[in-house]
Amino acid sequence: MAKQVALYVLLVSVAIAGITTAPPLTIVILVFFGFKIYELVYFRSAKFIAIKNRISAHIQDCNDLNDHIEELKSTHIGADMTRRGHSDYHDNSKWNFKRSGFKKITNAPNVYNCSRSVCDGSRRDPMKYVCKYFGFSADEPTLSKFENMLNNFTAVEDGKNSLTSEKNEILASISDDVPFLIKKFSKKLLAKKLGFKDVDLSDTYYPSFKFQYVSAGGNASTENTIVMDIPNLNAMVNYLNDRIKWKKSVAGQRALMTSALRKHILERDNYTCRQCGISTYAEPHLLLEVDHIIPVSKGGMTTEDNLQTLCWRCNRTKGAKLNV
Ligand SMILES: [Zn+2]
């Protein structure tokens, strides 16, 4: 405490001396460093540490949800989808040049260098061309993989909203106890010092497929990028379903794991986790997921009886047990 007072005294005296004698730029620099010292002192104070300890369980929950979302983002369609079927990489100089622009994108697009007519065709009928040129065959395993991706990515999108709301709620709950200047000018640092992990709200995790045509001379080029976002994943699931030659008995039993079915299951279960009983009525920002009771990998079907609503915490625990 004595140290804190000494710092303030030093700061005020320097500021007074500065204001009376110094030019404007020096004043700005002094105010800046003064504020940095104030921040430093505040984040080390017993008062701040008490606030941090009080909400640490909530922050841990938020960080766990963040980890969960990051895990879901890494859902893949195939182990090595760029090298199946007709897909091929050509590292021509133009592509290498453009590549530097993709540094921030976690999933650089899978590129297919093609003729102009293929590039144009991919615009007219995107899912057909992705299947044909990136080697996805119309069969049940492929459909299941895309359904799984759609289900997980929808959870990511819902989860990002949950996470933002939960974080804002936690910050609002301590708002009265945090000094005005810290709230106003040190928002990011406050979240960091409280222990929040960085949250990535971007949608760069969606895989994408790119058809690229470059003329022999290099002057003419067209490209068409198909991002597998939620609408496109729904389109893909429907496209594959139409193409698969179902045996009649299977087609009759099986439902399609689209966004519409997901919504239907959540409604049917009254937005309540069937494992622990928590609901969005009790916890408005709760992330709910749709889970296969018997996993697809263990022969479970996408049927209404085999689908259930789970909260993200129960689903995560179940997933961890299955992976052991
Ligand atoms: Zn639960």
TrEMBL record:
<dbReference type="GO" id="GO:0003676">
    <property type="term" value="F:nucleic acid binding"/>
</dbReference>
<keyword id="KW-1133">Transmembrane helix</keyword>
<keyword id="KW-0812">Transmembrane</keyword>
<dbReference type="GO" id="GO:0004519">
    <property type="term" value="F:endonuclease activity"/>
</dbReference>
<feature type="transmembrane region" description="Helical">
    <location>
        <begin position="6"/>
        <end position="35"/>
    </location>
</feature>
<dbReference type="Pfam" id="PF01844">
    <property type="entry name" value="HNH"/>
</dbReference>
<feature type="domain" description="HNH nuclease">
    <location>
        <begin position="260"/>
        <end position="316"/>
    </location>
</feature>
<protein>
    <submittedName>
        <fullName>HNH endonuclease</fullName>
    </submittedName>
</protein>
<dbReference type="GO" id="GO:0008270">
    <property type="term" value="F:zinc ion binding"/>
</dbReference>
<dbReference type="InterPro" id="IPR003615">
    <property type="entry name" value="HNH_nuc"/>
</dbReference>
<dbReference type="InterPro" id="IPR002711">
    <property type="entry name" value="HNH"/>
</dbReference>
<keyword id="KW-0255">Endonuclease</keyword>
<keyword id="KW-0378">Hydrolase</keyword>
<keyword id="KW-0472">Membrane</keyword>
<keyword id="KW-0540">Nuclease</keyword>
<dbReference type="InterPro" id="IPR052892">
    <property type="entry name" value="NA-targeting_endonuclease"/>
</dbReference>
